[in-house]
Amino acid sequence: MTTSATPAAPTVDELESQELRLVLPHFTYEDAWALGTLLVDLARERRAPVAVDITRGGQQLFHAALPGSTPDNDAWISRKRRVVERYGCSSLLVGTRFRAKGTTFEESSRLDPDAYAAHGGAFPIAVKGAGVIGTVVVSGLPQLEDHAMVVSALEHFMP
Asked: Which of 54, 56, 89, 146 could form a disulfide with 62 if both were Cys (CB 3.0 to 4.6 A apart)?
């Protein structure tokens, strides 16, 4: 189980600010490995039963499943990743925007909930001058903790 406290739910403005701040100068195969292993190290430190996934341009560049994770985490990864690919922003931001409008993603997006999940944990990999080129996803914790783990890793990863 994790040793960190559940973070407070961020606002739309806070989530948008994270995305503006966490834009990388580049993202190579080596960067995917470094970011993925950083996330695995964070998860191990916290004893978090998560799966980690990184894709770029539709290609899976990194995947790891830690003890306690299950095949369901891989299904959640796919559903959350599709939200980032469709909307170009974090899965938590998408869900938060719907809630801010007084509805839910499931009620109002008109997308199949078996294929899309606007729950925290998937974050866009954005590169300066190129925009969103991929995703980094964590699944296995409550959604705010999944999101916070990805953001923490990206903050440490930034040059």
From this structure: 54
